[in-house]
Amino acid sequence: MSSLVVIIILVSLCQLRFGVGFRHFRVRVRKISSFSPWQPQIRTFATTTSEAVRLDPDPDLLINWIQAHSGHFDLDILQEKDGWSLITKTAAEKDAVLATVPKKLCIFSKPELMESPLTTNAVTLMDSLGTEHWRTRLAVGLLSERVRSDSFFRPYLANLPFAFPGLPCFYDAQEFRAIQDASLLHTSRERCAFLNDFAENVLKPLHRSAQDPFNGHFVDANVLGWAFGSACSRGFRFLAEGAVLVPGLDLCQHSPQPSCAVRDRGDAFQLVALEPLGKGAAATVSYGPLTNEELLGDFGFSLHRNPHEAVSLACDASALRAAASILGESAEAAEGSARVLRSPGLWQLAGLRAVGVQGGRLEVRVTERGVDGRLLAALRVLAARHEGELDAAGLDPSSLQSPGLVLLSLIHISEPTRQ
Predict the structure, then answer these.
(1) What is the pLDDT of residues 100-145, one digit of tens each?
(2) Helix, strand, or coil here: 77?
(3) Which of 25, 44, 66, 352 could form a disulfide with 71 if both were Cys (CB 3.0 to 4.6 A apart)?
């Protein structure tokens, strides 16, 4: 396989995953329609038989609750049609503390960290889930408090959104078809399947049992979906111990160049200015170095210019064949490299192992800043016709990860004098 074909296949592999270039997700978000499994039927939570509990927006109640428990909130809540956000009340210097929220007001994915304990049954159910299921853990904690008319967290719960139509797991069938990204589609379907399964096979058997965490209230996939959406779109995940819902501070909007940051001060979380801010300035934070797939999946939006955009790319035999097919290359050209991936020679095995190929497959990440050097290195090994082509270029397994050296060697390998 010529060096030119190798490089073209590399480019086409990236475009198989990205579409054309690093595109912005363009799924048009509408109100939740007839995709009934994910319409959050809040009416199932009732404190009385005649009055349904609903989200009751009262930002003053939330701020007064924070201040009544030794916190402070030197911010205004801006209520807009597309959501709430935080702005400064007055000008603030760099490092100024704009808000302090005591940890006793927070809900943690690890209930043992909570100063205001949840019910025993809720804790038991949360602890039965692995820490990787922090969203579901928080969802259980939220729902267990929402069914309690005397919940300590009611000022926070009352101000949570009623629905999360921007999250892919709430899309209807037409919106699902509009998702162009296979990985996002797969992740969203897995989440839907998990929540349906959890509601049916875990929560349903607990209903009205001695271990019922929801005090006799029936929680189906609809209600669980609402709580899951609350958790994934509002949970801070910067803690080594898990994720946490921080009342008030979870209203901060995301920015790749944030004006503020949330700091852990031991007994409280603080919102600190990272730069001088004028009156009415947006108090933004970074939700983390998240890709567009992660932002859309958890928060319901994506960024046109996301500095952290990246995709995971699996380079295996099937990907090589697909790339060759798209480019109109012969099947034999791709099949030769596919055979090497499946059954490399000893000299090829050393190079492929050095860059992380396992079981005929290489997992890499591609960003706007360039292609993972390991992918270039793996393709360089696949392009070599014999061990001497690697040795003559002075390449060893450690140097194979340098894109510059790889491209130089590709030039050498294409010279007609080198056989």
Answers:
(1) 999 999 999 999 999 999 999 999 999 999 999 999 999 999 999 9
(2) strand
(3) 66
Alpha-carbon separation of residue 206 from 41, 136, 197, 210 (angstroms): 19, 16, 14, 8
User: Could you give the angle at the alpha carbon of 105 between the alpha carbons of 101 and 107, nearest 5°?
Assistant: 115
This prediction has a pTM of 0.73
Q: Which two tokens stand for residue 155?
A: 């000022």
Query: CA 350 to CA 130: how far, in whole Å?
Result: 37
List, as own/partner pairs, every contact residues 47-55 make where C-beta atoms lie below 8 angstroms and the sequence separation is at least 24, other chains included: 47/149, 53/146, 54/162, 55/157, 55/158, 55/159, 55/160, 55/161, 55/162
Assess contact for 171 and 35: CB atoms under 8 A. Answer: yes
Sequence-separated (6 or more) residues with CB below 8 Å from residue 409: 380, 389, 390, 393, 395
User: Where do we find the tokens 């038989």?
Assistant: 49
Q: If you ran DSSP here, which 8-state letter would residue 28 be given?
A: P
Dist CA 210 CA 137 (whole Å): 20
Residue showing tokens 């997700």:
25
